[in-house]
């Protein structure tokens, strides 16, 4: 990961999105946000951009023949 996520970083990101969160709320959110970022980074390492999904939803098909 490029940079370590700190409480101040999280507060800044929340404010840029229009969220006004108290420090105690940010402290409770921080571990989950760090974990989610780590999981996203791991997926990016494992899945090549060229890989296609195993299946794709097509709303125009109703399954009837």
Number of strands: 0
Helix content: 40-55%
Biggest sheet overview: none
Helix count from the secondary structure assignment: 2
Beta content comes to under 5%
Poorly predicted regions: none
- On the 0-100 scale, what is the average pLDDT? 85
Q: State the shape.
A: elongated
What is the CA-based Rg, rounded?
A: 18 Å
Cα(first) to Cα(last) distance is: 49 Å
> How would you spell out the order of helices and strands?
HH
- Provide the structure class: mainly alpha
Give structural notes:
- By secondary structure, this protein is an all-alpha fold.
- It has a domain at 7-46.
- The chain is built from two helices and no strands.
- The protein has helices at 7-16, 23-46.
- The longest helix has 24 residues, at 23-46.
- The protein starts with 6 loop residues before the first helix and ends in a 19-residue tail after the last helix.
- 0% of the residues are buried.
Features of the shown structure:
65 residues; mainly alpha; 2 helices; 52% helix; 0% strand; elongated
Short account of what is shown:
The chain is an all-alpha fold. The protein has a domain at 7-46.
Topology at a glance:
Blueprint: H1 7-16, H2 23-46
């Amino acid at each position: 990961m490029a940079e370590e996520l700190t409480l101040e970083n999280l507060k800044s990101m929340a404010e840029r999105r229009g969220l006004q969160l108290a420090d105690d709320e940010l402290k409770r959110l921080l571990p989950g946000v760090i974990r989610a970022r780590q999981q996203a980074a791991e997926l990016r390492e494992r899945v090549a951009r060229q890989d296609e999904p195993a299946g794709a939803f097509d709303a125009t098909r109703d399954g009837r023949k």
